[in-house]
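If your schedule permits, I should be very grateful for your opinion on a structural question. I have a record of one protein: its chain in single-letter code and its fold written as discrete structure tokens. Kindly check, if you would, that the fold set down in the tokens agrees with what the sequence suggests. I remain grateful for any guidance, and I place the record below:

***
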Amino acid sequence: MMNDTTRRNIELGLAYCGPAFILGYIIFWAIMGHNIPPPNMMGMTAEQLVSEYYGKYPEIRVGMIVSAVVGLIYLPWSCLLASMLKDKQGNYTALSFMELTGGTLTAFVLALCPAIWAACAFMVGEVDAGVIKMVHMFTWFIYDCTYMITTIQLTGLGLYVIFNRDQQIFPAWTGWSAIGTGLVFVPLSLLPFVSEGPFKLPGLWNFFVVYTTWLFAFFGVFSFYILKHLHGTNTRDARGTPALV
């Protein structure tokens, strides 16, 4: 049977999957993938998308392949987070499963879409530019317009934190922050219909506000409290005090 020290070390490893995911995704998806911001696909012709994005930056191929691997690191972090959402009797609830399922599907999208964009990058010059744009757009619609899977994750997490006042890991305000972040995603539904303004793909709201809010108001906040809890528990365990979870 796994002892407490081994279990806590495994949990710390899973917790650090969060920062590893963010760092890897920033390097390979955002920087090497030239997605700060991404090209305005709804305002570009197929030829422009190929010449000004895929054809111009061949490193996108490597960036997206690595992103497909790194994206799944979000999964163990989400699993660890779900393991902390228990009721008074130590049982998992529907809110725990909302967080877990939403996190699992989010990780899948974070890995699947870069793999498809990599295919677009590899096929430049071999298939018609219109085919590349169609696949590129289709993949972005999956990436952004299925935001509800992450909103469900954040809603389950937020409701648990707000209404479970016995838990000592996450302050109540973090629950509201999670739910608010999920609501910030809603204008992503406008993505297919606009090519100018704050709701276009690289726009002020649908890129900069959405991604920075997700990074800081949700992921950064919960990563901080997870690590704070686990490091604190390790210290208390070493002194012979029972763990919180």
Residues 236-245 have pLDDT under 50 and may be disordered. The two ends are 17 Å apart (CA to CA). The chain has ten helices and no strands.
